[in-house]
Amino acid sequence: MPMNSNPSARAPRKSRSWGNILKPLALLALILLGWHFAARAQIWSSYVLPSPEKVWNTLWQMLRDGSALRDILVSLRRVAIGYGIAFGLAFSLGLGFAYSRNLTQWLGPFLEFFRNVPPIALIALLILWFGIGEVPKIVIIVLASFFPMFLNIRRGFEQADEKLIEVGRSLGFSRSKLFFRIVLPCAAGDVLVGMRIGLGYSYRAIIGAEMIAAASGLGRMIVYAQQMSRSDKVIIGILLIGLIGCATDWLFSLGLRWFSRRRGETLG
User: Fold this and answer.
1) Are 164 and 182 in contact (CB under 8 A)?
2) Predicted structure pTM score
3) pLDDT (tens digit, 9 = 90+) per residue, 74-112?
4) Phi then psi for 229, rounded to 5 degrees?
5) How far apart are CA 53 and CA 232, in angstroms?
């Protein structure tokens, strides 16, 4: 009889999966109850801490009139553009740095310098150069998400299995076939990890950029709500960006798990 057909062997796995779901839900319920009673007791004024009911009603109204969806789509579009550019640059330079010593010697010090400069520190110069349009926000996203992806992609290519590469050469693989059949699969895990980390930095960067100079987007919504003393909308903006980030991170985690299983089956 196969081991996975044993009900007692499956029971611990099922209990762990249910525990992973129920524990966060229980904590969320406790937080909402504490928030509800703190608002009812008026420990803080409604200006500082609106009730969860008020936040929910405001969110529902924003979803009905479409204002929340418009800001979400604007921010996601900016993230998609900046993140796509950053990934293209990170992949190209990560591959180049892994196999070209000259490129490392020429560009390495400059990349190390900009890696230590917070992207938001450049927003003043970017506004002076490009105005308050889309370019400064895209550049901020590129700078924020580039380095996590670049470092992981470079490490992935540098750690490609030399023995497998030699086997491919002995079989007469061309350079392109060697790259796509051996080098890229070896580096794919680090590439996906870098992409996952870089996406989180993209969300952080776009909110900061939109809070400083934007006419739309979730960051602008938070700033405008603060100026209008609408703490319920500020909380909604925070919740929306957190939920969007969790959703995309979950998709990346699914991709990483799928890749790990596929690689394990291949090696097995």
Assistant:
1) yes
2) 0.81
3) 999 999 999 999 999 999 999 999 888 888 888 888 998
4) 60, 40
5) 10
